């Protein structure tokens, strides 16, 4: 399989969002790092597929691809690891920050976009914009050597101790290499 071409760093457009805590959802308040969006990190082309994205991420070696799926429609976050999501097909409207959060962020993402979520950032699917039946799919990846991801909802359910969630998030280290670009890249500058 041929290597995927990334958008050159000099032409890459990124967006960052610091999202305040909302209820028991920490969002970016426990991390100095914002939600990072890489717009069009992979230029859309016929060779852009979930398999090609997984091969690229494996070659860079910062994150390990773990799944292919859409995004859950219920707000959730992870306290044991950061997460990289890369859109392999389709487009969708997503919400970051937790339901009812007036400072939450609604974004439309499409094939080739990537999102780097610090642990604690709530996220959910609002709408698959792929038409009838939808076709929105992402590759979900986590730092190499990271603990298995957990599912937290910030709603006080049994087993979701707010203090322990906070401790786990604060104990995580940030990336020493960018998950898409390696030795250079936006994750190292935020």
Account of the 3D structure:
Pfam families: Cupin_1. This protein has a single domain, classed as Jelly Rolls (Sandwich). The strands form two sheets. A six-stranded antiparallel sheet has the order 1-2-7-4-9-3, with helices on one face. It has a three-stranded antiparallel sheet with strand order 6-5-8, with no helix packed on it. 11% of the residues lie in helices and 28% in strands. The mean pLDDT is 93. The chain has helices at 50-60, 162-170; strands at residues 13-17, 35-39, 63-69, 83-89, 91-96, 105-110, 114-117, 123-128, 137-143.
Domain unit count: 1
User: What form results from the Cα inertia axes?
Assistant: globular
The SSE string, one letter per element, is EEHEEEEEEEH
Low-confidence stretches: none
Instruction: Supply the CATH superfamily name.
Output: Jelly Rolls
* CATH class wording: Mainly Beta
Strand content: 25-35%
Sequence of strands across the biggest β-sheet: 1-2-7-4-9-3
According to CATH, what is the topology?
Jelly Rolls
How far is the first residue's CA from the last residue's CA?
32 Å
Helix content: 10-25%
Estimated structural class: mainly beta
**Taking Cα atoms only, what radius of gyration do you get, to the nearest Å?**
16 Å
Q: Main sheet?
A: 6 strands, antiparallel
